[in-house]
């Protein structure tokens, strides 16, 4: 049973790191939203999204298959785009709700 507990503890640690990294990535998206507003660029840039997806699939060593990585990053990108749009509103301020 201790092996199971050890693996679960490791998963909990990884989950905490994932949350930290996702929030760090999201802060980048907020800053990009501010820059896009200044540069009068749209929040959605499909060519950039395709580039990100190609990159993460190419760098995937497994055990997740490429389709799973693609689905996960499509969701991450969708959430980032939402933050970008939010940061492009009139206030330009991020609010935790």
How is the quaternary structure best described? single chain
Shape, principal axes of CA atoms = elongated
Low-confidence region ranges: none
Count of spatially separate domains? 1
User: Would you count the extended β strands for me?
Assistant: 0
Number of helices: 3
The radius of gyration over CA amounts to 17 Å
Proportion of helical residues: over 70%
Sheet/helix structural class: mainly alpha
- Beta percentage is under 5%
Keyword list:
3 helices, mainly alpha, 97 residues, Chorismate Mutase Domain, subunit A, elongated
Structure description:
The radius of gyration is 17 Å and the shape is elongated. The chain has a single domain, classed as Chorismate mutase (Chorismate Mutase Domain, subunit A, Up-down Bundle), CATH 1.20.59.10. It has 3 helices and no strands. With 97 residues, the protein is an all-alpha fold. The mean pLDDT is 90.
Gist of the model:
The protein is an all-alpha fold and 97 residues long. The protein has helices at residues 2-39, 46-58, 66-87.
Protein topology:
Blueprint: H1 2-39, H2 46-58, H3 66-87
């Amino acid at each position: 049973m201790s092996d199971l507990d050890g693996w679960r503890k490791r998963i909990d640690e990884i989950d905490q790191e994932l949350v930290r990294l996702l929030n760090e990535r999201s802060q980048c998206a907020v800053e990009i939203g501010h820059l896009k507003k200044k540069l009068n660029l749209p929040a959605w840039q499909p060519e950039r999204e395709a580039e990100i997806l190609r990159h993460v699939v190419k760098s995937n060593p497994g055990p997740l298959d490429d389709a799973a990585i693609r689905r996960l990053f499509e969701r991450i990108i969708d959430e980032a785009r939402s933050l970008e749009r939010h940061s492009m509103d009139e206030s330009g301020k991020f609010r935790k709700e």
